[in-house]
Amino acid sequence: MSIACRPLPHIHEVAIAREFISWVEQADLLGWAESEYAAGHLAPNTNGAHRYFKSYAENDPVVPKLFWAIRRRAVSLFSIADYEDEPQYKCFLGCNTTGGFVHRHADISPPGRLHVRMNIMLSKALAGGEPVIDGEKFDVAERDLWCFFPSIMPHESAPVVGDRKRFVLSIGILVPEGKV
After folding, report:
1. Angle at 34 between CA 87 and CA 73, to 5 degrees
2. Interior angle at CA 60, CA 54 and CA 63, nearest 5
3. pTM metric for this prediction
4. pLDDT at 3
5. Is residue 157 within 8 Å of residue 101, measured between CB atoms?
């Protein structure tokens, strides 16, 4: 899949890359996500009911190699050369079921670094589940990627409506503060 490079969004903006992953990539990753959920590998999120997640470190054997290739592609999309893995949340798989939502919050960044999140919507709820960043709701379709600075922009999601799970793959990195 060929992508055109672009700069990171400004620290108070959100960038959306439409159809960032292919239908085949989505099917492969969604199959893995469903199996992680069904096997009970996703832990309940203590910040709200009907929310589940699991963080993964690079080269974790349970994560498909496809995910790491997509992670590299996401970093390349934004022409990021100087970065490190975000150590607290890392990369993670999130799942919200009926009634689940991400509570309004801002993430932390260590001094001199900015936290960048690149999220991919693997599976969209029948209704709800949209990301809300700095008070603005974004229409993100399945296979889209959205990128923002979660330590600067408070974010949340609308509650999931219906019996279709909302699966999101989240890629976290840190970039030097003075280079953004």
Report:
1. 50
2. 65
3. 0.94
4. 62
5. yes
